[in-house]
Amino acid sequence: xxxxxxALIEKRVSANLFDDTHTLSDRExxxxxxxxxxxxxxxxxxxxRFIAVRTPESKARLRALAYGQAKVEQAAVTFIVCGTxxxxxxxxxxxxxxxxxxxxxxxxxxxxxxGARGQYADPQLARDEAVRSATLGAAxxxxxxxxxxxxxxxxxxxxxxGVARAFGLAADEVPVMLVAxxxxxxxxxxxxxxxxxxxxxxxx
Length: 204
Fold this sequence. Notes:
The protein is of the alpha+beta class. The protein contains nine helices and four strands; from the N terminus they run ααβααβαααβαβα.
């Protein structure tokens, strides 16, 4: 019997066609994001934010900024996945419950804080980390949706500056990806062919 997680990976598709009569409740949206935030992040900073675009007015505004892609409006919800520039000062706060639970020695926290301070003093590295964290969150969201019998369609074709202005993103937030989630409509393509391993894998 195939492992269910492996089966999800094998059958996942990037959906373009959604049932526009299907809706998701607040609780269902919250569960998707609860699962998405199980993704890894450097120093456990969890430097991401998810904006669930669900009302007709907000969807229309976002669709205009996503070059008219219909799935933005047709899906039950389209998430704006944002990465936040990492703030080293947040490290002790993010780690405190882990330390209090006895998993991590308290004297290790200062080393992590200084590591984050040094690494993200470089603006390019800080932006890279924001994009990396948001991408890991988006990927986990996609598989969470699949596990809950929903379809998803990630998008990078959108006006990032326009989205930041229209949806009130903070100066330290980067809109990395849109992810449409809902019930698939008939007519979506199957998963497209993947490159052979010989082209993408080196074992040394």
